[in-house]
Amino acid sequence: MNRSNVNRRRFLRDAATTAAGMSLLSGFSEKAFASEKFREVNADKAAEHRWDEPRIKFSVIGINHAHIYSQVEAVIRGGGQLVSLYAKEQDLVAVFTKRYPQVKLAKSEDEILNDKTIQLILSSAIPIDRAGIGIRAMQHGKDYMVDKPGIITLEQLEEVRRVQKQTGRIYSIMYSERFENKATTKAGDLVKAGAIGKVIQTVIMAPHRISLTTRPAWFFDKKNFGGILTDIGSHQFDQFLFFTGSDQADILASQVGNVAHPKYPAFEDFGDVMLRGNGGAGYIRVDWFTPDGLNTWGDGRLTILGTEGYIEVRKNTDIAVHEGANHLYLVNNKETQYMNCNNVELPYGRLLVDDIINRTETAMTQKHCFYATELALKAQKAAQKLNYKKA
Question: Are the C-beta atoms of residues 243 and 190 closer than 8 Å to each other?
C-alpha cells in the first residue's frame, strides 16, 4: 500500500475517533470522499533502442565539468561511438579514461578536428572556451554538442550564429535540466497532449549545492562562466520557451547577487528573473544554497500552470514523501495524479544523432537553442545587483 493512501486513511480514522474530528467530518458530505480522485502510477516503460552498428562517431574536447559524462552517455544511447579525447588536465583525463578505457587520447585539438571520420564533437570545457571550440568544430565540418552555458557573452553568440549559418552545422547546447530529467520529459508529453489546457505560466526553482571544497578556481570568477543567470539560468530559459511555446519574450526584471560568499567577490550565488513571452509568462529563481542535509545536489521544482490544470515536477527529490528522483504531480479537471517517471525515455541523444544523420531539427531547433541563451545573456546583462546592507 502506498504511503499517500496510508496517510489519508490514517487522517480519516484519527479524525473520526475524536470529538473535534467528528465535528470536522460532519462538514463533509459522503460524496466528497467517494469522489476522491487521487492516483499513484508509474509512467510507461520506454521502448529500448538498440543499434547493431554505430550510427555516428564522436569525440570529446575539454572535460572541465562532470556534465561531460551525461553528454557522452546521451550520444551512446543514441547510437554514437566514442572515438577520442583531448584535454589538458591529466587528473581529469585519468578519471575519464577509467570510465571509458577504449577512448583514444589525442595529442591535440587539431588531431580531432582534422579526423574526417568524426561527425560530432562534445565539450564541457571551461565555459569561456566553449564557444571557440564550437566555432572551430563547425568550421571543420563537425556538429557540436556542448554543456551549458554553451555561450557566455552576446559577442560570442553573434559569432557562433554567424558561423553556424555559414557552415550549416548543428550547435546544440545540452540543457540537461530538461533533456536529462525524465519527469521534465514526461511533463512535455503531457503538455503537448493537452493535459492542463493552454499553458499560462512556468515557475522554475533551481537550487544547487555549492560544494566549495571540490570546485576549481575558475568556478568562482564570473568572467569564466558569465554569471549565474547565464550559467544555471540558461536551463530555465530553455524550459520557459519550451513549455510556454514562446518564440519571443521580454525580460521584465532580473537581479543577481553574492549574498553569502564574500571570500569570492567575483562570484554570484543568487539570481531571479520575471519574463513575459508570446506564449506565456515565467518566473525563474537560481541559487547556490542547497543545504548539506538534503540527499541530492538540488531540490529542483518546475510548476506549469495551464487553463485546465497544473503540473509540478520535483526533479531530483520529493522530500519526505517519495524516494529517488523524477517525480511528477498532475492536477486537472479529471483527477489528481502522482507519477513515478523513472521508466521514461530520455530522447535527446537519439534525436540529436538522428539530426546529424538526416540534417533535421528533431532534438531542438537551432533557433530555440540560441534564443534560450540570448534571453539568459540579456537577463544577466540587465540584472540589478542585490544589496542587503542596511544604511
Answer: no
In this predicted structure, the answer to whether residue 23 has a pLDDT above a threshold of 80 is: no
Looking at residue 36, its pLDDT comes to 60
Using N-to-C axis directions, what is the helix angle for 366-382 and 233-244, rounded to 10°?
Answer: 130
Taking the whole predicted model, whether its pTM rises above 0.85 is answered as yes
Residue 111 to residues 60, 119, 127, 211, 332, Cα–Cα distance (Å): 11, 14, 22, 35, 55
Strands 270-277 and 281-287: antiparallel
DSSP state string for 143-174:
EEEEESPS--SHHHHHHHHHHHHHH---EEEE
309-314 and 301-306 beta bridge pairing: antiparallel
Tell me the pLDDT tens digit for each residue of 30-66. 344 334 677 787 887 767 788 889 999 999 999 999 9
Helix H or strand E encompassing 15: helix 3-16
Given a contact cutoff of 8 angstroms between Cβ atoms, the answer to whether 317 and 39 are in contact is no
* CATH for 178-347 (3.30.360.10, 3.10.50.30, 3.40.50.1470, 3.40.50.720): 3.30.360.10
Between vectors from CA 311 to CA 315 and to CA 283, what angle results, nearest 5°?
75
**In the CATH hierarchy, which top-level class contains the domain 56-174?**
alpha beta
CB 356 within 8 A of CB 215: no
